[in-house]
Amino acid sequence: MKGRRKPRKKTKPARRSHCAVACTLDLVGDHWTLLVVRDLVAGKQYFDEFLRSPERIATNVLAARLKALQEQGLIEKVPDLADRRRYTYRFTEAGRHLQELLGHIAGWGRKYLPGTRILEGIEMPPT
Amino acid sequence: MKGRRKPRKKTKPARRSHCAVACTLDLVGDHWTLLVVRDLVAGKQYFDEFLRSPERIATNVLAARLKALQEQGLIEKVPDLADRRRYTYRFTEAGRHLQELLGHIAGWGRKYLPGTRILEGIEMPPT
User: Fold this and answer.
1) Is B21's CB within 8 Å of A105's CB?
2) What is the pTM of this model?
């Protein structure tokens, strides 16, 4: 098996269309990604912190979503300054715009889904 | 096998949390549902019409998403008045609110994802 390489670098899949909705869903259109975004917006930065969120994301799902967000250039993984064996996750410049999307979705949910609330630290867009 | 019944009625899964974002994603947090919503907003109402959208949703995926939206009380399936063997899909009162969510997502996509556009018939929320 020597010399055999795993194919690592995935090429970006082609867009399904140029629809703004379709392209946004290509980024964050799944059950979990926006919850990771929510946690980042709320100030969480460690893998363990995301795991402790009330929705109980599974370890492998979290790892996959963080990796996808990194590959899309929306977050970056940087060594923790306090403990170099640990990593923190943070938005890139492009990823920071997701905060605005999150605010809209949170606002819609609170408005139309009875009994829901907006977690602390999530900023709402001006209405 | 006579008398044996398939379990038909699924009980609604418990919420992952009361977070407004998580609950919104429970409704529409997948790759395809909001594209069906987009098509409904744009005036499409037949199964065939959804299939012809540029993203080329697969027949089985479309059927599953329409069924889920029905089960969530967001759309209804009604016999076509012009041809009783056909069905049309339309928003329920509750489902109509999805238009607002869609507008926010479309607006975000157009603003931050270069080269995307908003399909005809999608109304944008006031900014």
Assistant:
1) yes
2) 0.81
